Amino acid sequence: MRLEKCYVCSSTIYPGHGSMFVRNDAKIFRFCRSKCRRNFNLKRNPRKLRWTKAFRKAAGKELAIDTSFAFERRRNRAVKYDRDLVAKTLQAIPVIQKVRSEREHDFYRTRMVEREKETRKDALRELATGLDVIKPLIVREKLREREEKESAMEVIEEGLVDKS
Amino acid sequence: MGSGTGRVTKRKGSNKRSRRKRTLSRALDQIHEDISGKGQFSKNGTTDLPVDFDLPGLGQFYCVECARYFITDGVLAAHKKTKKHKFRLKELKDKPYCQAEAEAAAGMAPPDNGSTSAR
After folding, report:
1. Least confident of A146-150, B6-10, B50-54
2. What are the coiled-coil residue ranges (chain A) (predicted)?
């Protein structure tokens, strides 16, 4: 049984599912569902569709380079049945899955920490530069008027002091 | 439909033509091959393209990047100044997407063909 991957979203296609397109140059494209096929027909680049695995890996949103990705692969050679090999493989599967999920989680956590720093920096910058925007215009006008009045009073008072 | 205003917009041409155009137009990865010289068309193939009476301009004025035939040299030159052409050039700068990339994104290693790998 061969499990294929969708050309667009990289999800696993089980036998009897999805659809296949063979282009006139004999290149094969497999799609997991009509959504993916339609997006292919619209000539969209899966690397630019935000919901695909290809986008997430290319944009650095998911762990992309790791040794735990070296196990699942298409093997184009027949392996002779070996009871020990099967047992070892079955033992290894959960271990590899655990390691991978832990590494993916770590990657996510570090990414979120970085993101938190960035958002904080952005917010502080906005606070420093854009405070005028949230202060209403009328309040600013009134404050200026008051300041002008006070300065005028000061001038008069100073004049009075000089005369006396 | 169209009984009130008297204005009926008729479809020009057949749907068959547009469908054929869509299926026959070359995909970006094929155009990449054309440009690199592996595909059906070579990069500066305006001089030695085969004469085809069914194509515009006998198939002599071809834009490789846009996979389009033009009627004359002048029209082809004008096309190369258009936004569409420039946008296509920009699109072609990226490496073409392929099934191998989809599989790598799914967490798969490159295929093991037996002979090359000594594990």
Report:
1. B6-10
2. none
Look up tokens 């695995």; give the residue: A53
Q: Please tell me the total count of domains within chain B.
A: 1
In a domain, B102, yes or no: no
Q: Is B11 exposed, middle or buried (0-12, 13-18, 19+ CB in 10 A)?
A: exposed
Which pLDDT score is estimated for A140?
Answer: 79
* pTM for this entry: 0.73
A-to-B residue pairs, Cβ atoms closer than 8 angstroms: 75
CATH assignment at residue B65: 3.30.160
Instruction: Give the start-to-end residue ranges of the domains of chain A.
Output: 1-62, 64-129, 135-163
| Structural domain span for residue B75 | 25-95
Nearest CA-CA partner of B97 in B23, B30, B29, B25 = B29
Q: Find where tokens 């869509």 sit.
A: B22
Q: Which long-range contacts (CB under 8 A, 24 or more apart) does A136-140 make?
A: none
Q: Is the pLDDT of residue B2 over 50?
A: no
Q: Which CATH architecture has domain A1-62?
A: Roll (2.30)
pLDDT at position B56? 86
DSSP state of A135: S
Question: What ipTM goes with this model?
Answer: 0.72
A53:B102 CB<8 A: yes
| Residue numbers in A near B90 (CB within 8 A) | none
